[in-house]
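QA checklist item 7 of 12: single-chain prediction sanity check.
[x] sequence parsed
[x] length recorded as 225
[x] structure emitted
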Amino acid sequence: MQDAGFVKNAFAGIASRYVLANHVLSLGIDVLWRQLTARKVAEKQPRTILDLATGSGDLVETLQSACIGAQILGADFSVPMMREAQKKAFNQLIAADGMNLPFHDGSFDALTVAFGLRNMASWPGALVEMRRVLKPQGFLFVLDFSLPSLPVIRPAYLFYLKNIMPRIAGWITGQRKAYEYLCSSVERFPSGSDMEALILSCGFKSVKTRHLSFGIASLYVASVE
């Protein structure tokens, strides 16, 4: 179980500088990850999309450009983060907890969650809820950090994750403790085959993984039967 209360307060504290911190810490590569995700969503031609843990609206902004004509709704339990999304002129937003979504069963053709599942109180509980609100033949897209498998990259990345990233993020946002927690969560978060098994155990029919930037991030695309 994740500490949902701490996460909520942490994001409230870093909301205004969250996007800047992400771009600096990833050297801007996170923009490319979101663009790829949006292209993969567009390939499925969804008419309705729920962007869960929408935060400051980075993925929503990319989805709007890629999925012309789709109805896109952003949901997050952090109102301060969604205010940042509103600054990008995106107002189709709802305050909602990923553990208990206020939608009927089978409401959406596609559901995206970028860097959000990792911070939810229960990963299986959140995935089951995502499965519930997806239509038959719907698709789930999970974009999140993972750990590189290459032995020459993994140790260096872990050192950066534990020692460098929280310091830089703390300097940018003034909230080092928040990033110490967020960075440590990456190491605990399942990835690769472990994430595939978790997604399948929550009622999805199939799942495919695409490793990004040597496995620093991964995109999981799951389908509903």
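[x] summary fact logged: The chain has one domain: 4-223.
[ ] second reviewer sign-off
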